[in-house]
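Lecture 7 notes: from sequence to structure.
We start with the chain below.
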Amino acid sequence: MKRRDFIKSGIGSLTAVGSLLAAGREERKPDSPSLQAQDVSNVMVKVLGTAQDGGFPGFGCYCPNCLKARENPTLARLRACIALCDMKNRKTFFVDATPDIASQFDIIHSRMGYAPKERTSVLTSILLTHADLGNYTGLLFYGYEGLNATRVPVYCTPTFSRFMEDNYPWSDLIQYENILLNHIHPDEKLSLTPQMFITPLLVPYRDEYSDTIGMFIQGERRKLLYIPDIISWSVWERSIVEEVEKADIAILDGTYFSRDELRGSSLKKIEHPFITETMKLLGPVVESGKTEIYFSHLNHTNAALDPEGAALKEIKERGYNLASEGMEIAL
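Predicted structure tokens for the same chain:
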């Protein structure tokens, strides 16, 4: 078997597995009445995944959380991703291309009401936040071994663009015009459609291959802040309190619930804020009722993944919540 045919066969199998997993799960609905679009809006954010890069359950992991998710597939979560949807113009933008892109592609195309024959012709654009496993490797499925797409618009920073242009296999996607790169710049507002705008924000992270961004997403009536990855709120040059107060809704990095999850040498590798620390920091914002705050990008070890556990109970009692697959947020 030739390399190209072998890879195509392998990717096809992975895509099929992902689709089956998605089909076996019910979408989770939002808990907050304010997220159920009481007011009609042409702009919507749909949550397509909330797990950290390794997925949930984790590949080859048999920790208590992953065991429960294997025994009960309704607990499983796709990797962190949201879709920005202009319902009037029928345009969609994925924020990140995860390894679960096939399942997430089907979910959003079904929600937008595209006919089956439209699914390969309608271009779902992609906004990339950074070059981690869970954020851009889904682009590979747009290559000739997968969808073999034509000129899918991909938005990223110039640093990220240079990395992909200089490195295989991303360079092949560019050379063969499977994707078309567009530059976005921190703090520069970008109109995606007449009703929908984003403003990228540079955030501190590991940045081995690219810089990292979060973003404000502005619709017709409301604004959402999305920051799924950051090292620490304290090292950011901005005040997370002030940035959250600018938004009606915030979906933030909730990778780990607390310091108790990881011990010993693992603590040195943690590069995310703890949910417990974030809740303490943003307590006054939640108490004011100004901004609703949700946590995403949950590591498989996160104690809040237990729906009956004390961690999730504490999160809700303090006025926060976890983002969940299927949430639809009218902006």
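Points to note: The first strand starts at residue 43 and ends at 49. The CA atoms of residues 52 and 297 lie 4 Å apart.
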